[in-house]
Structures
1.
Amino acid sequence: MPEQLTNGQYHTVYNLLSLVIAAQLFTSIYLLVVQPRVLPRYRQALVVAAIVCGIAAYHYFRIFDSFRGAFVTDAVGGQGTYTQAAGSAFNEGYRYVDWLLTVPLLLVELVVVLALAKKLQTSLLVRLIPASALMIALGYPGEISGDNLTRNVFGLLSTIPFLYILYVLFVELTRSLDRQPPAVRQTVSRLRILLFATWGVYPIAYLLPLLGLDGADAWVGKQAGYSIADILAKALYGLLIYRIARLKSFADDPAFAEVEGGHDQAVSHEHLDEGQPKAAKVGR
Amino acid sequence: MPEQLTNGQYHTVYNLLSLVIAAQLFTSIYLLVVQPRVLPRYRQALVVAAIVCGIAAYHYFRIFDSFRGAFVTDAVGGQGTYTQAAGSAFNEGYRYVDWLLTVPLLLVELVVVLALAKKLQTSLLVRLIPASALMIALGYPGEISGDNLTRNVFGLLSTIPFLYILYVLFVELTRSLDRQPPAVRQTVSRLRILLFATWGVYPIAYLLPLLGLDGADAWVGKQAGYSIADILAKALYGLLIYRIARLKSFADDPAFAEVEGGHDQAVSHEHLDEGQPKAAKVGR
């Protein structure tokens, strides 16, 4: 944590943290409210997605307050600098507690929404959940250490379960995607790329101190990186899970698609090649 | 932000901010509760409208607290002046964070409630959403800058996506309105005018400092303008979306209209020219 932040740096972090609270809180509410928009068999995935965003919103309330309490300012009317407050420090630990709970649940969302055979689902979960928890737990000792060697060692150890998760998602899961409707396959592919890209931000932010970037700018960059990655990896990810649940509901039950006004969508992806007249479904 | 506010100026802003909280919070609750009043295919639009008002309510709670913390007073018994508090400042950034999330969603509401063909809907959304996010993001650097040239440049850049959005809404969307029931066409027209009129308030408030109006009165005027525009552009707008969803539900399904007591309304717009006796339907 830097000793001093400029007015601009302070408010960049301040407003980003508030943005994350709003994004997580209202994505969580949204995912709970839209449950009737998917078939019952896909609601479990939506509930887990909503819980993930709710847990993140809680931790960002804490992070926001921790950040506000960690600095004092001589600012009047919006100009001035922000200095470390005595007897207080920004608690990075909230992030690790959040990830320890939410990262395994993010993998649960993905596996559950696909509604795979129970045996395959169990096999995926018993490997993904412990691996993801281990990944977070191994990162923490490095994060709180001021020593670069410790940071290196735990960073490296944490990468092993990360690579294992990627292997399971990109190799093993791919085999089971053949049975999914084409639009679902496409969205799942996007979801994995989103997961890979956003989870990649965390190790980069983690490694910033190793690159000698330890000033106020690097610290602000790390907070911004974690914040934006959390929005993408939880809120946007949850909305994509909802999209998969919608598409699968429409594919499973044409009558449901008709009532929901999604028949056009289901048709366009599922049966268009069968020559059904698409225009007739529009606007019903 | 002015150095001093009179008792009247302070309480004008204070009470307006509280009015916005009440308007957004209860419009949000209303829009969630009335979901069964429209057909399932239109509920998505209502949920998004409710989320928009909820996000606005959250940010106005923050804005309200920020405003209260930014001033100290020597007032006793309701008389006195309000002076900038040391170590605190009113955070205008909350408004931009709010708009960044809500403005794209306002356009989603409008497109989703029309239940257009999926292809057209996607084509509208992939242009409107990035344009609206860009419009807000480009306004922010000008808003926080004390420099008039910077304010001018970013204000001008922000106008480009704004004009593009108006083009899409008033030219491209018009073509697809022909298939909508007459009452829906009329409400959509009103909605676009509301959108145009209220979104026009934001650049005017933005430009006040350029006009040399930078005293306490201008600042109070800006806060009042933003607050009233936010009520019209989110809460009233959401209620008009609900009206469109109701009219379309009645037009789609006469049996639903009958149960909801809206058959008279649907008939008067849809089938009046077919010579059906209107009076017989009233009050059922």
2.
Amino acid sequence: MKFSCEKALLQAAISTTSRAVSPKSSIPALEGILLEAGSDLRLTGYNLETGIRTIVPADIREEGTLVLGARLFGEIVRKLPDDIVTFQSENYMVNIKCGMSEFNILGTDPEEFPELPTVEYQNSLILPQSRLKAMISQTLFAVSDNESRPIHTGSLFEVDSEGLTIVSVDGYRLALRHESIDKKEGAETFSFVVPGAALSEVEKICSDVDEPASVTQGARHVMFKVGDTMLVSRRLEGEFLAYRQAIPRNNTIHVEGDTRALLSSIDRVSLIISDKLKSPLRCVFDSNLLKISTKTAIGDAYDECPLSGDGGGLEIGFNNKYLMDALKAAPADKVRLELTTGVSPCVILPTEGEENFLYMVLPVRLKAGE
Amino acid sequence: MKFSCEKALLQAAISTTSRAVSPKSSIPALEGILLEAGSDLRLTGYNLETGIRTIVPADIREEGTLVLGARLFGEIVRKLPDDIVTFQSENYMVNIKCGMSEFNILGTDPEEFPELPTVEYQNSLILPQSRLKAMISQTLFAVSDNESRPIHTGSLFEVDSEGLTIVSVDGYRLALRHESIDKKEGAETFSFVVPGAALSEVEKICSDVDEPASVTQGARHVMFKVGDTMLVSRRLEGEFLAYRQAIPRNNTIHVEGDTRALLSSIDRVSLIISDKLKSPLRCVFDSNLLKISTKTAIGDAYDECPLSGDGGGLEIGFNNKYLMDALKAAPADKVRLELTTGVSPCVILPTEGEENFLYMVLPVRLKAGE
């Protein structure tokens, strides 16, 4: 194998594919990046769950394949001067030259690198990268980390004529984002569940630009394509929560508040709460005012946040982290909180326009003195 | 105790004094900050080695003292809105109010807080903060962490009519910085050794401004004063290395190079070296060229850096980290390297002007094949 390419482009490609490389594995090849110099130069990282492949513009003089340890390979290329990098390998020994620098390092047999699954085309959709990125990041936090219900360790992608809906749920809260898409192919409606770990990488691969990203659903896998980069993940199998039935929509109390002001108030009261000293937030929805308080062995804290609307004095308890996660994710300066009783969920929605997000947080029981 | 003050000023004072607070101590008061409301509001942190005291402008309505846990106190004040904070304590319970936020937390008995040592005035000097900060940061890295020679776990401050010289040494290398000072009081010449841990805090307290900092040497302690903040540390006792005799000054080889280019070359070759796979740098000083190479189980690396001057082909081994530390600290774009043989130290100096820095790195033995 012999090729040369620009240092900056190679560095970007290593950084992208490294995201799917196992940091520590019993199979040494899985700690590496597969380099394939053919008609183009392809770099692949694959941890058996998620695979990322990207193409680097390169001048290929001799075809070949090799696996290089991702960490060392990445560090060497990062520290090389901004110049053309030349690679030449014989057996598993690779010579890397750039400017006045030269390295000889040992690679691994590419035969030991597992093959990326192929995604048999079923259905697909196209939407701007920036939109996909935002939708993922604003729902990913509610994905469950409880492996006893594997289906909820991923997010549901639901596609219909209205667009794409992404839903995450973990038993204590629910996050939903809805947006229109540019194009849809295949079935009238389709849905699939993507593991949270893969979505976390898709989010990083997408940029804040309007260039398109495509999502292709295969029989057992799903593929995301963003520019020259492709990510493949297995789909999660099982029955996802029938979320529409789970969300109460005839709530009797509607109040509106400033997202950042709500967050600041909750954040301050939360100072008294720690992993060791847990306590729910006691929220009282008064007329145009939310009173938040809590009490632990450290002391007590009280805060107020102005709202518009009358909560009728409803008292309800919340896990501070769950409420903050939802408010942090909500892509709006103002939000509407819908409530009914002290034992029914709180639903967080936009105050106006299309209902493009919905967060639901279940209440926790308040004990006297908390 | 009852007082009110500006949130931002209080936050800055907590952040400064927290540096001298023990993160974990068997005496709970040592994990706290002492608040003393008298004619002014004083905050003190003291971990029995280093003490930091600072003054906060405050409106004091009732005098008193209290100790508050530094971590919680700091987090509460940091998250309060930008407004006037009101404190009111009764026994050890303190009520903190700011805007619509209110906290009640428990403090500790101030009687349990150890008294800061008083520094009996002997000698003192004054120099700009920015200069003191730079001198400390450019020598601190060479302080020894070997407790078997406690005197070398600090830096030597030597004051004479020429100014201030700070020297650190750890048995493998030496760092020296010299600068003029604004004012000197007391003895004609004097010297003392300040613990590295205290200097690390002094460096952070000093800003990049020309406002003066004063250093006062007491019989057993040393005091740094920077604006409204004062740091007290015990002095290290013992015999510091007679460093002037240790530095070879009649070196036969003089070469000059670009500091950043030298650093980049060494940094790249060092990629092959890790904590587990140690190997010295093999440096060959040729005519106008430094060749650097090394070899470990990972592979081998080679780099070149242009120099001006002839090294006559001298081959010498160095610990990569020690050479990089010195070059990173050197406050100059170009440096002069002085060498004599493969077993004598390398001295790093300015290429021109006053000799305001000197770094010395001892060589390491090269084995065949390294």
3.
Amino acid sequence: MTWRFCLSPGLQNVGAIHFFCNYEESRGNYLVDVDGNRMLDVYTQISSIPIGYNHPALMKVMTNPNNVSAFVNRPALGILPPENFPDKLIESLLSIAPSGMTRVQTMACGSCSNENAFKTMFIWYRNKERGYANPSEQEVGTCMINQSPGCPDLSILSFMGAFHGRTLGCLATTHSKVIHKLDIPSFDWPIAPFPKLQYPLEEFVRENAQEEARCLEEVEDLIVKWRQKGKPVAGIVIEPIQAEGGDNHASPDFFIKLRNIARKHGCAFHVDEVQTGGGTTGKFWAHEHWGLDDPADVVSFSKKLLTGGYYHRDELQPDKPYRIFNTWMGDPSKNLFLSEVLNVIRRENLLEEVTRSGKALLQGLYALQTQYPHILSRARGQGTFCAIDACNDATRDSIMIKARNKGLFMGSCGEKTIRFRPTLVFKEYHVHQLLNILNDVLAEHK
Amino acid sequence: MTWRFCLSPGLQNVGAIHFFCNYEESRGNYLVDVDGNRMLDVYTQISSIPIGYNHPALMKVMTNPNNVSAFVNRPALGILPPENFPDKLIESLLSIAPSGMTRVQTMACGSCSNENAFKTMFIWYRNKERGYANPSEQEVGTCMINQSPGCPDLSILSFMGAFHGRTLGCLATTHSKVIHKLDIPSFDWPIAPFPKLQYPLEEFVRENAQEEARCLEEVEDLIVKWRQKGKPVAGIVIEPIQAEGGDNHASPDFFIKLRNIARKHGCAFHVDEVQTGGGTTGKFWAHEHWGLDDPADVVSFSKKLLTGGYYHRDELQPDKPYRIFNTWMGDPSKNLFLSEVLNVIRRENLLEEVTRSGKALLQGLYALQTQYPHILSRARGQGTFCAIDACNDATRDSIMIKARNKGLFMGSCGEKTIRFRPTLVFKEYHVHQLLNILNDVLAEHK
């Protein structure tokens, strides 16, 4: 197998490029590179390909003449939506709205979604604080020069290990890698510990419950402390599974209690499903595993949903137009693709498929870590959203490169974790192919 | 003429919606609403439609089978670009790179472009400060918890009246309207006055030069003051014409001196061409009117370019991969459309067309303000990027609604300004149609 690298003078981040791809030749779960190498792809463009490469249902969107206009005339959705936009929203995003959520706002990407979700929470919080009265003259005057009270000292509580994006607001809640954060100014916002659980979860129920209790206590302490500091917590943001930070899980009980803490202290509760959403955990939203009717105030999404955006409860609707606004406010052409993805998910019962494949994958990872305990540990997952740790980062990286040379393309996260992010059309026979290659690599590993 | 409004339960910002559109039936400079009303559109989706609705060249992109894959397989560009991506960049974005700029980074939207441009300047500035050494242990440790020195107290200097986007980093440099800023936490960054010039510029050369000198002096004072405060200015961000803030112009001399001040104080100079870029001023980039070989360190774009992104000088290239990164890093399908737009601009000499139409438009606006001096004043513009002020906001809004009912759709900006943002295929006969309708409205105005 050969790997061709190309230094392109005008490209900025060539250092991060793994290889160039032939997307025309890629199909389903298989990614093809420019040299014709065909790989089982379980990283899927950082978890953003929902039903595989070149899916016929998506190709059909392109060839339907009724759709051409949505691609060539990108509207300013906030002011001049296309006639069919409400219907398209109803058949796409609103058909999968999380429990209790009646509103959705599309955005261009995950970071913009979280930035605007934060703003929605700040606006809601300040409206509560001022009793829904008009802003004072002082607020109006100071906001234009970035000063309090117009630009208030509010904060968002986040968790160590979290990843919520890399624009400046999002980045103040992201704490997964130094390379994301270094040299970028930030906000003095509270950061709580995320539970460090022991796996398999079933074997460490008591220890894990203790760890989660410790973290929840810290959350409440931080909320009180930041209120005293004059920087009240307007919202809490959390991933159902910390993804970039190393696939860190917590129990439904932890999230239920955290949601209650948010309610008790008057903070909005924002569940960031940018990576976990879209069916990969076996439910459409990972937070559905918590079993709550009122799981959150805000749920943000992107990646597998093909458009960014966020849902929120009615109560968080901004009081005036143009408070949440930008030129494009999303992209209706992405909604067309999403509608088709949802049709395929329903027609082919893909969430059941994910649950089945996920069980096989996790069982296989358990078997591998039993067979290679000096190399692998901490297999964990929900649906096909699985991960396993190597003994160190060099070993992890070496396994990944060897696997790639045998036709398996995986992603990493955290310090020494391999993460599995296959499509929703990842079947049990793909699991076996994955496990066979991984087993070959491990058997050869010195 | 009737206007149908629809309250959609799942749409967030219904209050901002002007009307629903029939984009299929819209053509060239004419936007058609759901009731079949056909309007000459000189707002063009907030200045983001480059060559008109349903342009045949863009329709062809959709029907070319070679392009299907770019739409249905959106890659993670930073790690797995398509084979043809460097070539596509060379024939699209790099073919129009501003003078002195060899690097381009695509992004999904204007805000993300500016957020990442700011980050690029912060990284460059800190690398200079630490003499290109590795970060200290203290920096590595503190950055994960949002604290200095890892997250340093650096600032971006912006101008009163500026608009650079509405995510939290961008919003700290935006100072155009209260509704953008209220209730959102911000950074203590310096804000300089933008020159308040008198129009027509030719008639107030001396007064305007004095006003510009006053603002430049203030810029230098702020740079010194913020350095003393421990929040050094890493970059200066400015629009060549303040758009959202009310179409405020400044002279080439002002920008040349500002660029020199940035250089003298070691600050990066970031020209935000999100609204001014793409040919509407008669040159592809508005900063070309300054006549500089080295106009800026960073130039950001979006809207008419169809993709967001920013150019920068080689020197601002981040030292490591993954420092500027996100899942999608733009969207190659947008680059396909941009290539075609550029072909059309070249083939049809559209920049000359814009210059010609722009002259006719500005002359016409001068005539109108002479005829209706109690209603209109301060006509100004470059190319077709023109504007005129009404005597107050109520009058402005009333003129706009009456014009819309006569088939002319315009946008507003600032407090009482009408802004003209036609496509690049806006010909002299469109100008006359516009002026006729406007004249009719003004003649009837009480």
